[in-house]
Write a structure and sequence with these properties.
Helices cover 60% and strands 10% of the residues. The protein is mainly α. The protein has one domain (2-158). The strands form two sheets. The protein has a two-stranded antiparallel sheet. It is elongated, with a radius of gyration of 21 Å. The relative contact order is 0.14.
Length: 163
């Protein structure tokens, strides 16, 4: 949502129109969304140069690239009993993990070392997901702050004030 707000700020969408959020949200592939942000930032700073904001935008977009893979793991993963994907030691209590779907070819090997047909490249516990949630939550702050500064600057520019 915060990146949708940044996109909205970069394309000068009216905040109450939801146009920026709707356009950003209509694209389901995260790397395409990132490219939309890059293109919008490029156009914005070509027309409204501001070195500090441009550097900040670049930094926020790098964070997007860094965290998007984990976001996708969580959004597209499936919860299963651990032993469905790995052989459980005898006497171990049944537990659950978030695994990649069998159809996620980049995250699943065929016939891995466990002698099962689909070997996952990750298995996230609830603790691991909680850690990701904390990092995602912290990411909101710089993205929201940047979008607010761009919108504030936009208002100043429209009133003829320099920034």
């Amino acid at each position: 949502m915060e990146y949708a707000g940044l996109f909205e700020a970069l394309v000068h969408a009216e905040p109450d129109s939801q146009a920026g959020h709707r356009a950003y949200g209509s694209v389901m592939i995260s790397n395409v969304r990132r490219e939309m942000l890059v293109a919008a930032a490029e156009a914005y700073f070509a027309y409204f140069p501001h070195t500090e904001l441009e550097k900040e935008t670049s930094s926020v977009l790098k964070m997007h690239e860094k965290f998007v893979a984990r976001r996708n793991d969580i959004a597209h993963g499936i919860v299963q009993v651990y032993e469905y994907r790995f052989r459980m030691p005898v006497g171990k209590k049944k537990s659950y993990c978030l695994f990649p779907a069998y159809t996620t070819t980049k995250a699943v090997e065929l016939w891995g070392s466990n002698n099962l047909p689909f070997h996952p490249k990750y298995a996230y516990t609830s603790g691991a997901i909680r850690e990701f949630a904390t990092k995602f939550e912290a990411l909101k702050i710089p993205v929201t702050a940047l979008a607010s500064r761009i919108k504030k600057r936009e208002k100043q520019l429209s009133k003829g004030q320099s920034t």
